[in-house]
Task: structure prediction
Amino acid sequence: LLGVTEDDVVAAIRRLVEPVPSRARVTLGIGDDAALWQPSRSHRSAITTDMLVEGVDFTRDAMSLEDAGWRAMAANLSDLAAMGARPVLATVALGVPAGEIEEVLALVRGIAQAAARHGLAIAGGDLSRAPVLTIAIAAVGEVRASHAKTRAGGRAGDVLAVTGELGSARAGLELSRRGGRPDGAAAEQALQAFRRPAARCAEGRFLAASRNVQAMMDCSDGLSTDLDRLCRASGCGAIVEALPVSEAARAVAALLHEDPRAFALAGGEDFELLAAIKPRAFEHLAQRFRARFGRPLHRIGYLTAQPGISFEGNPLARTGWEHFSA
Amino acid sequence: LLGVTEDDVVAAIRRLVEPVPSRARVTLGIGDDAALWQPSRSHRSAITTDMLVEGVDFTRDAMSLEDAGWRAMAANLSDLAAMGARPVLATVALGVPAGEIEEVLALVRGIAQAAARHGLAIAGGDLSRAPVLTIAIAAVGEVRASHAKTRAGGRAGDVLAVTGELGSARAGLELSRRGGRPDGAAAEQALQAFRRPAARCAEGRFLAASRNVQAMMDCSDGLSTDLDRLCRASGCGAIVEALPVSEAARAVAALLHEDPRAFALAGGEDFELLAAIKPRAFEHLAQRFRARFGRPLHRIGYLTAQPGISFEGNPLARTGWEHFSA
Result:
């Protein structure tokens, strides 16, 4: 099974479940950040799920269990943000090793803190014994039918933009892996970005409200992987001209003798949003974005009719997170 | 932590998450079969989640992976049935050990079969590596605001009824545990009930449509445990006078020299519904139930003002499934 990607497995699953007679009210199914359905004519609800497994998606030495819980909820909030949806509620299913009641309550504290930040209610859950701590959250949001964005609406010529600088979370991961407690503001900022990432819910709703935003998704698996997904869904290629690397990523990369661009391209979980925007509308939208959020909407390149992604004149390979690669 | 029950852990979790500013539109939170929210004025959506973990909730020798997937989906469908909700869609998060792509596709086949039975669409999901196969489903249904039932509406004097005979699934589990392939229709029926339980979605919607049904829940953790939950939520006790034990449970219990009543009281996952019904309305409702479903609505006893549950004159202890007991 060498070389099987997560997307390959998802495609196989999709073939198994799509013969199911889907109700007409499910308007967007497997393959985007979240699914959409239609509880009534004017409303859309969005639902997403993420599973985090101890030893795979988090380890107890790299972060506290509160941080692991926060990150699990942030991943779901980010998927809702990518649809332009407002978070409403979530369910939380937890797998708990024998005797680890305090540990699971620590996870829940982190989950509840991230949820509270965005006004999302924890409305239900389930507990099971499990060999390692396991968190599976499903989160529901709401979006106007006319505002919902998918990965598939991008067109050749669209400007590609991200809602913030990239690489901080990966820099924090690398610092955590190497242990110790490095000094300095950059290290602190990187660790914070890794442990308490901020989902871009307000930014997602702002961009979703614009008819000039044609496609949107989050970069939770790394820009190189997620841009490839947006391009494939939109039937386009892309040229990446500029990569907004965070100061924290630069400083930590220098310390560790790594390439900061790799942190920005391959590191997911900065939870910035990636959007494809009609070219003539970009400047005005970016001005409004800066006025609203006090930081730039970063232009990173544009979509092309020709498939494939290039960065600095070379083909850009997927280097993001793959659960199912060799 | 000896003696900590799942309900104790849920109560601790509830204290952690309830300070979160819950949106007014979440109309029922933690502690029932599913949560309810209000996507628009006249609509209610219900959401539930269940996690199944290999080695805890299922084993590969007792059932096929297709069966495990079916059961995971049936547990969620049953929670929606208990609210009186019509199934709409679900998300499926799967934890997958290295190299087990075929195994996870087998799980998905079973999940999709159970979903198709009830017209529920699989709308999204997530994959993660995990030490053992792990299934976390979140399912969404819809119910009219006036039809939604909770565990809390029961009143002293209400008739307690279940939608079918109990004990078959537990009998099937016991047969599976002992291995071999016992002959006979009863054994076959018990194994089928264990491996391919039927969620009572149609029965749930039928009962939910009656104003005389005051409380409803499913018996997925065993009648003795779940009746205790309904009683506590409704501020009542109960007297159990009759226990409808399935023929399959009787036959298998005789074979194994076990008490068939224990199968019916402690065995969960028959997925029958338990309802509290206004006493004067019971006979008429039971007649309509029989006309509609071709089998009886079984009267098992009644709710009392006095707390505590008695069965055959003795206090009835919780003997159902507890993930967190010693």
